[in-house]
Amino acid sequence: MTEADLILYIVVATALVFDFTNGFHDTANVVATSISTRAMSPRLAVVYAAVLNFAGAFISLEVAATVADAVVDASAITPTVVFAGLTGAISWNLLTWYFGLPSSSSHALIGGVVGAAFAAAGAGAVHGDGVLSKVMIPAVVAPVLAFVVGALAIVICYRMLGRQRPGPVTRGFRFGQIISGGMLALAHGTNDAQKTMGIIALALIAHGSLEQGADPPVWVIVSAATAIALGTYTGGWRIIRTMGTRIIKMDAAQGFSAQGAGAAVIMASSHFGFPLSTTHVISGGVMGAGAGKRLSAVRWGVAGNILAAWLLTLPAAAAIGAVTYGVAHLFGDGAAGPAVIAAVGIALYFVTIVQRARKGQPVPG
Amino acid sequence: MIATIVDTTALLETIVAAFVAGLGVMFTFSLAILGVSGSIEANRNGQRLQAAFYVALAVLGTLATIAAITLGLIIMVG
To answer: What's the burial of B49, exposed, middle or buried (CB within 10 Å: 0-12/13-18/19+)?
Structure first.
């Protein structure tokens, strides 16, 4: 095994850990609405979401192509750069998690890779137009779109069914949530697992194992799908324990509307290769479904937190990615830098989780 | 400047697709629920013709919902 192989293994393992935590953190977003309206039991909802997360990862490769090609110049990237970018994303996620600040794993990932590429090869390695057109503008448009679609959908529903008896309507939408919740889990798997596929593809290109512009190999797709599904399944059991305190109260029609809007926006965006923050989109759908019923039902504080996350995450993760590359580079161009940083990172991660769990504090999504 | 950098066509198609899918499925599924709810009510009142109309509405709404979701998935996979 060469040193380049060792770095590649570390990068792939780190990417899959990132994917696992992505599923772990996002379970609440995918299943909370179905559980809160009693459309599904918590156990069923979690298993269902995990299975459809796995299936969703196989639907499309457009987002993976964007991450691998459109954001940074793959020919200027080394496995150490990809590692530094991943570390930047994970570090920022952990930092925001520790201080209870909102964060988008997707924006952190893109920011981390951009920052590390900038530090390693200068501004020429970053596709500024790709970052703007494929990441930043969709990041602003998508949650607003989900909000508007969610709000209009609930207005349509209340106009059509407002005079019907509530019993059959509620039962109907509870059944409908099995479909909309499944579509949301499928959409989540599609968009989020592909980001990891794109990162691993980037590392394989840098390693020389994959042609630039080629689709990720099957083992990459299967491992990314498995990691996000396992993360969703594992994260779900913690969600079940905390149900009833952190969920948003809504009726079944609002749940259907929010999930449908979220799934529609994420799937349409995935089809065109936009890597989104699924958390922001789902939050937009939930707020829209609330606003469509009553404007004061919107949690404007959540909207403010999303705005803060938009402004902070990309530059902060980029800065950490750049610094991580600098630190790794101090150990030379071999595997020593990534190996040392990975070991320190793993140790810090588990210390943080144990400390947080002892204090009884939740893991934010 | 921004317009030349941004893939406006893809962004607009995303917006249109999200509206059509999100609102279309809500409309067709609401139609199905309206049909089921209306047929229960009509049957209870002994209005056979109205009940048959609502059953047809429920079937139409259900089929349209299934078709919309299937079409969406086919487009995604394709």
So the answer is: exposed
> Number of H helices and number of E strands within chain A?
13, 0
Instruction: Say yes or no for a CB contact (<8 Å) between A168 and B72.
Output: no
ipTM comes to 0.91
Give the Cα separation of A46 and A121 in Å (integer): 43
pLDDT digits (tens, 9 = 90+) for B12-69: 999 999 999 999 999 999 999 999 999 999 999 999 999 999 999 999 999 999 999 9
d(CA A109, CA A112): 5
**Token match 């939408």: residue?**
A173
Dihedral (Cα; A85, A311, B10, A224), 10-degree rounding:
30
CB contact under 8 A, B14 and A271: yes
Question: How many residues does the structure list for chain A?
Answer: 365
What is the tens place of the pLDDT at every residue in A131-175? 888 888 888 899 999 999 999 999 999 999 988 888 999 999 999
Which of A131, A132, A160, A270 is the best mutation test for B, with the most CBs of B within 10 A?
A: A160
The 8-class DSSP code of residue A296 comes to: G
CB A169 within 8 A of CB A161: yes
| CA distance to partner chain B, nearest, from residue A156 (Å) | 7
Paired strand residues for A126:
A72
